Amino acid sequence: MERRTRAAAIGAALLLTAGAAGSAGAASGEHHAPARSEAPVRGGDALPGGQAVRAAQAAGAREAAALTGTAKLYRPGHDIGFTFDAHLAGEDRMDPAAATGTFRLRHVFPDGSSGWARARVDCLITGGRVAVVTGVVEESDRWPRGRRVGVTVHDAGRHDRLGYSWATQDPVAGDVPPCTSSAPFEKVDGKTGDFRVLPWQPVYE
Description:
- By secondary structure, this protein is α+β, with helices and mostly antiparallel strands.
- Helix content is 18%, strand content 39%.
- A hairpin with a 7-residue loop joins strand 5 (130-140) and strand 6.
- The chain is globular.
- The two termini are 19 Å apart.
């Protein structure tokens, strides 16, 4: 019951946001061409709302969103690696907080000292080729267990970028909200691996 209520609230919030944006455009007199769907429906026409919902439900266990892969950041003198295995099941499409999986990181500093952490995923939202994931720290040699941290990934082939919540929020001091992180300001060394983002496709009734 709690999950259905949370999913309904998320859907309503997204619809309200879309409605507000439409009203603002109408008020300003601006006209915009409709955005292209990243996954067009076979046959050329978008499905009506009810049919779209049924189509999503029929997808069964197909994933609604995902962030996977392993790579290191490009920062001379440092060895910083991230591994993601985050997934949102098709049946939980409208509830990003139902995401599952883990992500890991390890940072070796120029002086040879290091730090590492493993977090259990508790929220995942993807859009286009960008993913924002948060997780609760389960193991770490520097951060307290139970703290929530976030990471952002821009999947750009061999030119991926990455950002993280601890750029502004020290995990020792407190949590960040679910699905919250920074802009992807760090470059990823494309020679060390690759991150892959599966775009989220919300379904509106």
